[in-house]
Every structure is written in C-alpha cells, then in structure tokens.
Design goal:
heterodimer, A: 438 residues, alpha+beta, 5-stranded antiparallel β-sheet, B: 218 residues, mainly alpha, 10 helices, Atypical_kinase_ADCK (chain A), ABC1_dom (chain A), ATP binding (chain A)
Chain lengths: 438, 218
C-alpha cells in the first residue's frame, strides 16, 4: 500500500473536501437524470452507487473520526440504500499508514525505547488500518503480538470533523440539524472515548474476563505494561474476516454456531453486564482456524442506565402488552412528550409500537432465522416509510437509542450476512417486578 | 576545565538571570578560570550559544545515523527521523532553547547564534538529499535543486518555533507539524505535475521552432 503523503490539515481543507463532495453528489444526480432520459429503465441503484463511492472517496481521505463516522453510517444498512452501505463498510480496510519514524517516535515517547528494543521483532510496515490507528505485527518471547498505534491528533480533529460531517450527514439522512445536538454530543463523547487507549485496555481486560465462560468466543490477551495512551499491545489472533470466511462456504451448522456465539456475546453484555461492545462492525471480528469467534476491539462501549434499560426492554419483551403501560414506557424514553395532543400520542404510540415491535421480533420468538431476507425487507420498508414522515423529522427518543440501535441492528446484519439461525432466549432481558406482573 | 563545563555554567547563568553575564572576565572568575582559558574554547558568549546549537544538531544527526533502521530508510524517512530525534533532544534543554531563540532578535536572516548549526544541518541535509536523488526519490531540477537544503532549513526554523509555542500534551502537535510539513516538502521535491508541465512546455517550445501551423483554433 502506498503510504499517505499528505493528510488534509486544516479545517478549511476539510471543508473543501466536503464541498467538492457535495458538488459531486449534485453531478451524480444530474448523471442519473440524463441517464434516465436515454434509458428510462435506469434505476436509482446506479445513482446511489455513484454517490456512495464519491462520498466514500472524500471520507476515506479524512481519516480519524470522519472515517469512523463513515463506518457508523455504514452500520445503518437498513436506513441507507444498499449502495451506500457497501462502500462505507470498506472504510475499515483502507486508511494509508503513518511514516516509520513517527511510529518509532511514538514508542520512544511512551516507553523511552524504540519498538525493536521492546519486542523481539517489530514490523515497521503496518499490516492494516484500524480506523483511528494502525496495527503492526510484533513478537515477544515466541509469541505473536498485534500492536495498535493511534494517529496523533485524532482527538483534536474529532470536534471539527463532526462539525463538517453534521450538515452532510443530515442531508444524507434527511433530518434537520438543530434538534439533534443531544445525539451528536453522545456520538462525540463515544468517539472521544475511543481515542483513550488506556481506557480501552482496561475495558478489554474487564470484558474478556467477564465473558470468558461464553462458548466459542476467543479474546486476545492484553498487555497493559506494553500499552499506553496511544499504543495497545495484545496477542495476535490468527483468523479471517467474516467476508472472507463466508467465501469459504461454511456449513449451516457452523454458521449457526458462530451466529449463536455472537448473539450470546451481545445479549450477555446487554442483560447481565448492562454495558455492551457497541461496534458490531464486521472488521472487529475474526473467525479463527478452529472456527471460533475472535473479538478484537473494545474501543466503543455503551452503558445502559436503568432508566433506559427497564422501560425499553420491558416493551421489547412484550410488544403487544397493555396500551397504557406502553405509553408510559414511551414517555420515560421521551418518544412521547407530556404535552403531546391525544392525536399525537395515538400517532406515536402506533408507529413506535410498530417500529420497536418489529425490532423486538427476534427477541420475542425464542429462535430466529436471520438468513431470511423477508424480515430485513420489512425493516427497510418501515425505515423508508418513517424517514418520509414529517412527524419524524422532529427529534424524539433519549440519546441512548443511537448506540443501542446501532448495536442491535448491527448484530442483526452480521447474523444476516452469516445466514445464521440462533436461539434468542439464551440471555433474557431482566424486568422489574411491576413490569413482570403485567 | 573543559568546554562542557563552560557550556553548562553559561546555561545555568542565563536561565537564572535571564541575561548574559556582564563580561567574560566576571564569568570566568566565577568559574575560577583564567580569562584566556575561556578564549581557548569560545571567543564570546554568542559563540557559546552557537556551540550549544551546533552540538545539538551534531548529536541529533549522530543519533539518527546510528539507528539500525537508518540504512534502510528513504530520504523522506531520514529527514522525518532527524526532526523527531531533534525535538526529543531539545526537550532536555527546553528552557535554554526558549531563552536563546527569544533573545536572538527578530529578523529575516538567520540569527547569529544559529550560524554554525545551520552549516552543520545543511551538511546533513545535503547528504540525505543526494541519497534521495540517487534513489530517484527526489528529482534534480536546474537551479531549483540547489535550494532544496534551504527549504529544509526553513522547516527547521518553523518546527523549532512551533515547538517553542506548543502547549499540547507531550508536544503531540509538533509531531503532527513535522509529519505533515516534511511530507509536503518532500512531495515538492519528488517528481510531480510541475515537472510534466515544464517538459510539456519545453516540447511545445521546440515544436514552435519548426513553425507548425494550426489548421484551426479551439
């Protein structure tokens, strides 16, 4: 891979990147309509694909948080047209590496020694990018290690990146900007957390211990003494990414086994630990040679506070329950406001019940076959419908929804890609007493 | 009494008093040193500062070249490595460097105290540049390539000033300034659109001599 020779420096330059993208999107629309003149059968798919690849190219030159945002958008396959999602999900794999001297500099700064003096061997060329950093291979005492190094200045650029991406992303999602600052703040907080590698090591140690007993899951060993604010050292996990794995045409039983491991991993965290690995991106998982699931990134963790967890999962586990109770949950989750008129209450009650009810279906059924496209089409159709309703232009729902939706929908998507059928009642939501009696 | 001791005592003096000693005589006396011994090593206070900067550059270059990876480095990486090492070494003498630069006076020419350091730096730069030219990493251009070393010196001045004003944790901003600045500088020295443009211009000029007539205009 060619090493990146220039990173867009100033905010001005970043803005220029987005302006050119905006212009290009316009051109793509033009192309689309002219193509339609010539060939009335041209579908919007081609248009979306053109847009996605231009947007992707602009974003991928930005690195850091912008790249992360591209990834986040890529998670919402259901809301975004398919073409966008496919381009964005490449984001994980294609950021160009930093110079060798800067890598050495980072090590001497934090450990007082060059990497070749810390490890028995250290490859100065990175093996791959990890969105806000890059990964190098090293060995120590006969063990193969993965060393993750963060790009300098990532934290600083997050703020200005978000400002740049904001109007752009909203146009893409068709929402207004002003009301969404609560959510943006939530995203910003999480992104900033991800730049703290010391925190990530702490979390990785915690989660790998807490989830140790789960079947068919493997965590790398972490080395806090060889980690710092900008560097993480962990065991190298041999394995292939999901997409490559699927090309090997694994048996249904094996797909189900890996899918089950994923489901258990996420729902154990959600319901037992009340904090969850909130980055279910295919790039964060490896399938090991003995066909287990390797989990390699704990940068993004979402905590589920009680005042969100109980009302949300009370509804999820019983979406057809009592109307009064449901409205009460929705009020707690700020999806219905106290000053809404009775018609509005009815409208939001109907629509949110439908939406979350659909979302809850795998939870309710005890066993769910994610390979069937029907369910995902329903999600997509509903997403399209909702995104066109003017009532939903208004921001509703507590901020926790962003990452909880991202996590669970991301999980559904991976399970769909896997084509897995899983038991969904292995870890059940906890309910408070009065909710159970309902 | 050796050179190092005079240097250390001088640094200590200026940092404690925020000015130069009154005279060489007084300074030498405080070190229990004959004035002529002082002149054996330095001929003025300014030449002490010159010496400190010179030693800094020399040591940086020595350290960089003694690294195992250096041989395998491209010109770009050699320069980057030089600057990263430089700011690491400067850290130990940050107070003095800030004093020295702030007292050197503003102007368009290189301050007197950096004269020797500049020579030394250019020596290193030329070495790396010729390595880059040999490897086709850097293009030789008439008149312009003689100025390459000046571009790198400008980066030196910029980076030192940036570092002096850098308040980020661990001087992380300076790391970025180096990585980005040197990459741009080296990009300009490598083959790019300008070269192609010049060549195209040359070609067209050549054709002009043969008086090609254009049958139509655009």
């Amino acid at each position: 891979m060619k090493e990146q020779t220039s990173i867009p420096v100033s905010k001005v330059e970043r803005s220029v990147k987005f302006v050119t993208t905006g212009a290009k999107v316009g051109v793509n629309y033009l192309k689309h309509y002219s193509r339609k003149l010539v060939n009335p059968d041209a579908t919007k798919d081609q248009l979306n694909e053109d847009n996605a690849s231009d947007i992707y190219i602009a974003l991928s030159q930005l690195k850091g948080s912008a790249l992360k945002i591209a990834q986040m958008l890529s998670m919402d396959k259901n809301i975004l047209p398919k073409a966008y999602a496919e381009q964005f999900s490449q984001a994980q794999y294609s950021a160009p590496p930093l110079s060798g001297p800067l890598i050495i500099r980072t090590f001497t700064k934090y450990f007082g020694k060059a990497p070749e003096k810390i490890y028995d061997s250290f490859k100065l060329k990175s093996t791959h990018a990890a969105s806000i950093g890059q990964v190098h291979q090293a060995t120590l005492n006969g063990k193969k290690l993965a060393v993750k190094i963060q790009y300098p200045g990532v934290g600083d650029s997050i703020n200005s990146d978000l400002k740049m991406v904001k109007p752009f992303a909203f146009r893409l999602l068709g929402m207004s900007e002003a009301e969404l600052n609560v959510y943006i703040k939530e995203v910003e907080e999480k992104l900033l957390e991800e730049t703290d590698y010391e925190l990530e090591v702490k979390r990785s140690l915690f989660f790998s211990k807490a989830c140790k007993h789960l079947d068919n899951i493997i965590f790398p060993k972490y080395y806090p003494e060889l980690s710092s604010k900008r560097i993480i050292t962990m065991d190298w996990i041999e394995g292939i990414h999901l997409r490559e794995y699927l090309k090997t045409d694994p048996s249904q039983a094996e797909r189900n086994r890996i899918g089950q491991a994923l489901w258990d991993f996420y729902n154990f965290q959600q319901h037992e630990l009340r904090q969850v690995h909130a980055d279910p991106h295919p790039g964060n998982f490896l399938i090991t040679p003995d066909r287990k699931l390797g989990i390699i990134d704990f940068g993004c963790i979402k905590e589920l506070p009680d005042n969100f967890y109980y009302p949300f999962f009370a509804f999820v586990s019983n979406p057809l329950g009592d109307r009064k109770k449901t409205i009460n949950y929705f009020k707690q989750l700020k999806m219905i406001f106290d000053d809404d008129s009775p018609e509005m209450v009815e409208f939001y009650y109907q629509n949110y019940s439908e939406m979350i009810g659909l979302f809850a279906r795998p939870f309710v059924q005890g066993e769910f076959d994610f390979s069937k496209p029907g369910y995902f089409n329903e999600l997509f159709v509903l997403g399209e419908k909702v995104s066109k309703m003017k009532e939903f232009k208004q921001a509703r729902g507590v901020k926790h929804f962003i990452y909880v939706n991202r996590t669970n929908l991301g999980l559904y998507n991976i399970l769909h890609d896997l084509g897995a059928k899983v038991r969904t009642d292995t870890f059940k939501p906890h309910l408070i007493k009065e909710d159970k009696e309902q | 009494m050796n050179r190092e001791k005079i240097k250390t005592a001088y640094i200590d003096y200026v940092l404690s008093n925020n000015e130069q000693p009154k005279s060489v005589y007084v300074f030498a006396k405080s070190l229990k040193l004959k004035e002529e011994e002082f002149y054996h090593y330095f001929n003025s206070f300014e030449s002490i500062e010159n010496g400190i900067w010179l030693d800094l550059i020399r040591q940086t270059a020595d350290n960089v070249k003694s690294e195992e990876v250096y041989e395998g480095y491209s010109a770009r990486e050699r320069i980057l490595s030089f600057f990263f090492t430089l700011i690491e070494l400067m850290k130990a003498q940050r107070s003095f460097i800030i004093y020295s630069i702030k007292h050197s006076g503003k102007g368009f020419t290189t301050p007197g105290i950096l004269e020797k350091a500049k020579e030394q730096f250019e020596g290193f730069a030329l070495e790396v540049l010729s390595h880059g030219i040999e490897n086709n990493e850097i293009v030789e251009r008439k008149f312009i390539s003689d100025r390459y070393k000046d571009a790198l010196w400008l980066q030196f001045v910029f980076i030192v000033n940036f570092w002096i004003n850098d308040i980020s944790e661990n001087f992380e901003k300076t790391d970025e300034a180096i990585e980005k600045g040197i990459n741009v500088t080296l990009d300009l020295m490598s083959r790019g659109p300008i070269d192609n443009l010049l060549e195209y211009g040359k070609f067209l000029a050549q054709q002009g001599k043969n008086k090609i007539k254009f049958p139509f205009t655009a």
